[in-house]
TrEMBL record:
Region (Disordered): 1-20
UniProt-listed Pfam families: IFRD
Name of the protein this chain belongs to: IFRD2 regulator
InterPro entries the UniProt entry points to: ARM-like, ARM-type_fold, IFRD, Interferon-rel_develop_reg_N
Native species: Platysteira castanea
Superkingdom as given in the UniProt entry: Eukaryota
Family: Belongs to the IFRD family.
Boundaries of every Interferon-related developmental regulator N-terminal domain copy: 5-139
Length: 140
């Protein structure tokens, strides 16, 4: 009994922390956004959170879109990595496809932007490839 309650308490802590990081993606400070992206990258790469993310995928997708559009260098690279992990978490169903479809044009835009940093372009190329492999319904 107490083990299950303890586990649920830990899960709530993780979710509260993730919600805070997601809120921080909209902060005015680039350092705060980057720290939030790094924390999300760590969380998404270490734990399956698909149910939690399912409810918040649109908000997270919008936040990642802003980071890719307005961010520079490191922030764009981190946003691409988090997007890849989000696609992995969402899987090959309609949710993953929706995330990919909404951000694909932006990924292509950063990838083809010769003024973007090499790390941002590389991260967007990886995100584009991985998300396309996982979630693209259209075979082209």
């Amino acid at each position: 009994g107490s083990e299950a309650a303890s586990e649920q308490g830990q899960e709530e802590e993780v979710e509260d922390s993730l919600k805070e990081h997601m809120d921080n993606l909209l902060d005015k400070s680039a350092k705060t956004r980057q720290a939030a992206l790094q924390s999300l990258r760590l969380a998404l790469s270490s734990k399956t959170l698909s149910e939690f993310l399912l409810e918040r995928r649109l908000m997270l997708t919008d936040s990642l879109e802003k980071c890719l559009k307005k961010g520079k260098g490191e922030e764009q690279a981190l946003a691409g990595t988090v997007l890849t992990l989000l696609c992995l978490q969402m899987g090959s169903g309609p949710e993953g496809e929706e995330v990919f479809r909404s951000l694909k044009p932006l990924l292509v835009s950063v990838l083809t932007d010769s003024t973007a940093s090499p790390s941002a372009r590389q991260s967007c190329a990886t995100a584009l490839g991985m998300c396309c492999y996982i979630a693209a319904a259209d075979l082209e």
